[in-house]
Design a protein that fits this description.
Blueprint (H helix, E strand, L loop, with lengths): L2 E6 L7 H15 L5 E6 L15 E4 L16 H6 L2 E6 L2 H5 L4 H13 L3 E6 L9 H13 L10 E5 L16 H19 L1 H6 L2 E4 L7 H5 L6 E4 L6 H12 L2
Parallel strand pairs: 1-2, 1-8, 2-3, 3-4, 4-5, 5-6, 6-7, 7-8
Helix pairs in contact: 1-9, 4-5, 5-6
The structure holds phosphoenolpyruvate.
Phosphoenolpyruvate (PEP) binds next to β8.
GO molecular function, one term: triose-phosphate isomerase activity
Pathway: Carbohydrate biosynthesis; gluconeogenesis; Carbohydrate degradation; glycolysis; D-glyceraldehyde 3-phosphate from glycerone phosphate: step 1/1
Protein name: Triosephosphate isomerase
Length: 250
Protein backbone atom coordinates (compact mmCIF):
# COMPACT_ATOMS: atom_id res chain seq x y z
CA UNK A 1 0.00 0.00 0.00
CA UNK A 2 1.25 3.48 -0.89
CA UNK A 3 1.84 5.79 2.06
CA UNK A 4 -0.39 8.87 1.95
CA UNK A 5 1.56 12.05 2.55
CA UNK A 6 -0.54 15.21 2.70
CA UNK A 7 0.92 18.71 2.69
CA UNK A 8 -1.37 21.23 4.38
CA UNK A 9 -0.11 24.63 3.26
CA UNK A 10 -2.75 26.45 5.31
CA UNK A 11 -2.74 30.19 4.46
CA UNK A 12 0.74 30.07 2.84
CA UNK A 13 2.74 30.87 0.84
CA UNK A 14 1.76 34.48 0.33
CA UNK A 15 2.40 34.62 -3.44
CA UNK A 16 1.53 32.43 -6.41
CA UNK A 17 5.17 32.57 -7.49
CA UNK A 18 6.30 30.95 -4.25
CA UNK A 19 3.50 28.39 -4.45
CA UNK A 20 4.57 27.43 -7.98
CA UNK A 21 8.17 27.16 -6.91
CA UNK A 22 7.44 24.77 -3.97
CA UNK A 23 5.01 22.83 -6.14
CA UNK A 24 7.51 22.35 -8.97
CA UNK A 25 10.21 21.06 -6.60
CA UNK A 26 7.83 18.62 -4.91
CA UNK A 27 6.43 17.50 -8.25
CA UNK A 28 9.81 16.51 -9.61
CA UNK A 29 10.59 14.51 -6.45
CA UNK A 30 7.14 12.87 -6.35
CA UNK A 31 7.53 11.77 -9.97
CA UNK A 32 10.35 9.45 -8.90
CA UNK A 33 8.59 7.85 -5.94
CA UNK A 34 6.26 4.95 -6.55
CA UNK A 35 5.48 4.11 -2.95
CA UNK A 36 3.87 7.42 -2.04
CA UNK A 37 0.56 9.13 -2.73
CA UNK A 38 1.61 12.78 -2.60
CA UNK A 39 -1.18 15.23 -1.88
CA UNK A 40 -0.89 19.01 -1.65
CA UNK A 41 -3.59 21.15 -0.06
CA UNK A 42 -2.84 24.75 -1.11
CA UNK A 43 -5.05 27.77 -0.39
CA UNK A 44 -8.18 27.67 -2.57
CA UNK A 45 -7.03 30.35 -5.01
CA UNK A 46 -3.95 28.39 -6.05
CA UNK A 47 -5.85 25.18 -6.78
CA UNK A 48 -6.67 25.84 -10.45
CA UNK A 49 -3.31 27.53 -11.05
CA UNK A 50 -0.95 24.75 -10.04
CA UNK A 51 -0.76 23.19 -13.47
CA UNK A 52 0.98 20.06 -14.77
CA UNK A 53 0.21 18.13 -11.67
CA UNK A 54 2.09 14.98 -12.63
CA UNK A 55 1.91 12.51 -9.79
CA UNK A 56 0.68 15.05 -7.26
CA UNK A 57 -2.96 15.05 -6.19
CA UNK A 58 -4.58 18.26 -5.03
CA UNK A 59 -6.68 18.73 -1.92
CA UNK A 60 -8.96 21.52 -0.77
CA UNK A 61 -8.47 22.68 2.81
CA UNK A 62 -12.21 22.98 3.39
CA UNK A 63 -15.55 22.58 1.59
CA UNK A 64 -18.80 24.54 1.88
CA UNK A 65 -21.59 22.85 3.79
CA UNK A 66 -24.00 23.59 0.94
CA UNK A 67 -23.69 22.58 -2.69
CA UNK A 68 -25.26 25.73 -4.10
CA UNK A 69 -27.08 28.88 -3.03
CA UNK A 70 -26.32 32.44 -1.90
CA UNK A 71 -23.43 31.79 0.50
CA UNK A 72 -20.99 34.68 0.22
CA UNK A 73 -17.38 33.59 0.46
CA UNK A 74 -18.10 29.86 0.31
CA UNK A 75 -16.72 27.37 -2.23
CA UNK A 76 -18.70 24.23 -2.98
CA UNK A 77 -17.45 20.68 -3.35
CA UNK A 78 -18.72 20.73 -6.92
CA UNK A 79 -16.53 23.75 -7.74
CA UNK A 80 -13.54 22.18 -6.04
CA UNK A 81 -13.98 18.97 -7.95
CA UNK A 82 -14.19 21.05 -11.12
CA UNK A 83 -10.77 22.60 -10.57
CA UNK A 84 -9.07 19.30 -9.84
CA UNK A 85 -9.37 18.63 -6.12
CA UNK A 86 -9.18 14.89 -5.57
CA UNK A 87 -9.13 15.23 -1.79
CA UNK A 88 -10.52 17.64 0.82
CA UNK A 89 -9.54 18.25 4.42
CA UNK A 90 -12.65 18.40 6.60
CA UNK A 91 -12.91 19.50 10.22
CA UNK A 92 -9.34 20.68 10.71
CA UNK A 93 -8.83 21.93 14.26
CA UNK A 94 -8.11 25.44 12.94
CA UNK A 95 -11.59 25.41 11.33
CA UNK A 96 -13.12 24.02 14.52
CA UNK A 97 -11.40 26.88 16.37
CA UNK A 98 -13.23 29.33 14.09
CA UNK A 99 -16.52 27.88 15.26
CA UNK A 100 -17.15 24.87 13.04
CA UNK A 101 -19.39 22.51 14.97
CA UNK A 102 -19.66 18.73 14.63
CA UNK A 103 -22.95 19.27 12.76
CA UNK A 104 -21.32 21.56 10.21
CA UNK A 105 -18.44 19.12 9.80
CA UNK A 106 -20.88 16.30 9.16
CA UNK A 107 -22.58 18.34 6.43
CA UNK A 108 -19.27 19.30 4.85
CA UNK A 109 -18.16 15.70 4.89
CA UNK A 110 -21.38 14.68 3.20
CA UNK A 111 -21.03 17.35 0.48
CA UNK A 112 -17.45 16.40 -0.19
CA UNK A 113 -18.17 12.67 -0.39
CA UNK A 114 -21.26 13.21 -2.53
CA UNK A 115 -19.06 14.89 -5.14
CA UNK A 116 -16.67 11.95 -5.16
CA UNK A 117 -13.94 13.80 -3.26
CA UNK A 118 -11.81 11.68 -0.94
CA UNK A 119 -12.30 13.26 2.44
CA UNK A 120 -9.72 13.59 5.17
CA UNK A 121 -11.63 13.91 8.43
CA UNK A 122 -9.47 15.54 11.11
CA UNK A 123 -10.05 14.62 14.73
CA UNK A 124 -8.09 15.21 17.91
CA UNK A 125 -8.30 16.42 21.47
CA UNK A 126 -7.33 19.97 22.45
CA UNK A 127 -5.17 19.41 25.51
CA UNK A 128 -2.63 16.74 26.23
CA UNK A 129 -3.84 16.55 29.81
CA UNK A 130 -7.42 15.74 28.83
CA UNK A 131 -7.91 12.38 30.51
CA UNK A 132 -10.99 11.55 28.50
CA UNK A 133 -9.34 12.26 25.16
CA UNK A 134 -10.13 8.91 23.51
CA UNK A 135 -13.77 9.62 24.33
CA UNK A 136 -13.50 13.09 22.73
CA UNK A 137 -12.06 11.62 19.54
CA UNK A 138 -14.70 8.91 19.53
CA UNK A 139 -17.48 11.50 19.78
CA UNK A 140 -15.98 13.60 16.96
CA UNK A 141 -15.92 10.57 14.68
CA UNK A 142 -19.39 9.35 15.59
CA UNK A 143 -20.92 12.81 15.09
CA UNK A 144 -19.16 13.34 11.75
CA UNK A 145 -20.22 9.93 10.42
CA UNK A 146 -23.78 10.02 11.77
CA UNK A 147 -26.11 9.46 8.84
CA UNK A 148 -23.26 9.21 6.33
CA UNK A 149 -24.04 6.20 4.10
CA UNK A 150 -21.68 3.29 4.57
CA UNK A 151 -20.95 3.15 0.84
CA UNK A 152 -18.86 6.30 1.33
CA UNK A 153 -16.55 4.45 3.71
CA UNK A 154 -13.92 3.72 1.08
CA UNK A 155 -13.56 7.46 0.39
CA UNK A 156 -12.73 8.49 3.93
CA UNK A 157 -9.35 8.91 5.61
CA UNK A 158 -9.19 9.79 9.29
CA UNK A 159 -6.37 12.07 10.39
CA UNK A 160 -5.59 11.90 14.08
CA UNK A 161 -4.24 15.35 14.87
CA UNK A 162 -4.01 16.12 18.57
CA UNK A 163 -4.40 19.91 18.66
CA UNK A 164 -1.64 20.31 21.26
CA UNK A 165 0.80 18.62 18.87
CA UNK A 166 0.28 21.03 15.97
CA UNK A 167 3.37 23.18 15.46
CA UNK A 168 1.51 26.50 15.68
CA UNK A 169 0.08 25.56 19.09
CA UNK A 170 1.78 27.31 22.00
CA UNK A 171 3.14 23.98 23.26
CA UNK A 172 3.26 22.35 19.82
CA UNK A 173 5.30 19.14 20.05
CA UNK A 174 4.75 15.94 18.13
CA UNK A 175 2.92 13.06 19.77
CA UNK A 176 4.70 9.72 20.06
CA UNK A 177 4.38 6.97 17.45
CA UNK A 178 3.28 4.66 20.29
CA UNK A 179 0.33 6.90 21.15
CA UNK A 180 -0.57 7.18 17.48
CA UNK A 181 -0.54 3.38 17.30
CA UNK A 182 -2.90 3.13 20.27
CA UNK A 183 -5.17 5.84 18.88
CA UNK A 184 -5.27 4.16 15.48
CA UNK A 185 -6.62 0.99 17.13
CA UNK A 186 -9.14 3.04 19.07
CA UNK A 187 -10.25 4.95 15.94
CA UNK A 188 -10.64 1.69 14.03
CA UNK A 189 -12.72 0.29 16.86
CA UNK A 190 -14.96 3.38 16.73
CA UNK A 191 -15.46 3.03 12.98
CA UNK A 192 -16.22 -0.66 13.50
CA UNK A 193 -19.04 0.32 15.88
CA UNK A 194 -20.46 2.73 13.28
CA UNK A 195 -19.91 0.92 10.00
CA UNK A 196 -18.82 -2.62 10.81
CA UNK A 197 -15.71 -4.68 10.35
CA UNK A 198 -14.95 -4.41 6.68
CA UNK A 199 -15.07 -0.58 6.62
CA UNK A 200 -13.03 -0.42 9.82
CA UNK A 201 -10.34 -2.74 8.53
CA UNK A 202 -9.87 -0.82 5.30
CA UNK A 203 -9.97 2.70 6.74
CA UNK A 204 -6.70 4.63 6.24
CA UNK A 205 -5.67 6.39 9.45
CA UNK A 206 -2.93 9.00 9.32
CA UNK A 207 -1.14 11.13 11.90
CA UNK A 208 -0.65 14.91 11.91
CA UNK A 209 1.11 17.29 14.31
CA UNK A 210 4.68 18.68 14.11
CA UNK A 211 5.90 16.00 11.70
CA UNK A 212 9.36 16.71 10.31
CA UNK A 213 12.30 14.85 8.79
CA UNK A 214 13.45 13.70 12.23
CA UNK A 215 10.26 12.09 13.47
CA UNK A 216 8.42 11.13 10.24
CA UNK A 217 9.86 7.61 10.10
CA UNK A 218 8.47 6.68 13.50
CA UNK A 219 4.92 7.59 12.49
CA UNK A 220 5.24 6.02 9.08
CA UNK A 221 6.42 2.70 10.47
CA UNK A 222 3.38 2.24 12.69
CA UNK A 223 1.46 -0.87 11.74
CA UNK A 224 -2.04 0.18 10.83
CA UNK A 225 -0.96 3.76 10.06
CA UNK A 226 -1.44 4.85 6.46
CA UNK A 227 0.58 8.06 6.33
CA UNK A 228 0.99 11.57 7.68
CA UNK A 229 -0.43 15.06 7.38
CA UNK A 230 2.31 17.68 7.35
CA UNK A 231 1.77 21.39 7.99
CA UNK A 232 4.74 23.69 8.57
CA UNK A 233 7.38 21.32 7.20
CA UNK A 234 5.49 21.01 3.91
CA UNK A 235 6.25 24.63 3.02
CA UNK A 236 9.94 23.88 2.82
CA UNK A 237 10.27 21.86 -0.39
CA UNK A 238 13.61 20.38 0.63
CA UNK A 239 12.29 19.18 3.98
CA UNK A 240 9.03 17.91 2.50
CA UNK A 241 10.85 16.05 -0.26
CA UNK A 242 12.99 14.36 2.35
CA UNK A 243 9.81 13.24 4.14
CA UNK A 244 8.53 11.84 0.83
CA UNK A 245 11.77 9.91 0.41
CA UNK A 246 11.50 8.50 3.93
CA UNK A 247 7.91 7.40 3.23
CA UNK A 248 8.95 5.82 -0.03
CA UNK A 249 11.65 3.79 1.69
CA UNK A 250 9.25 2.16 4.16
C1 LIG B 1 -1.76 20.63 10.61
O1 LIG B 1 -2.11 21.70 11.10
O2 LIG B 1 -2.54 19.94 9.93
C2 LIG B 1 -0.40 20.18 10.85
C3 LIG B 1 -0.13 18.91 10.72
O3 LIG B 1 0.48 21.16 11.15
P1 LIG B 1 2.01 21.03 11.64
O4 LIG B 1 2.65 19.92 10.85
O5 LIG B 1 2.61 22.37 11.35
O6 LIG B 1 1.96 20.70 13.09
Amino acid sequence: MKKIIIANWKMSPSSLKEAESIFAKVRSKAAKLRGVETVIAPPFIYLPLLKSRGRIKLAAQDVAQNDDGPWTGEISAKMLKGVGATYAIIGHSERRELGESDDIIREKLYQSLSRGIKSILCVGEKEKSQEAFPHIVREQIKKALKGTPRYFASKIIIAYEPVWAISSHSKGRADTPQNFFEMSIFIRRTVLDVWGKSAALRLPIIYGGSVNTKNAKGFLEIKGGAGILVGKASLDAKEFNKILEIANSI
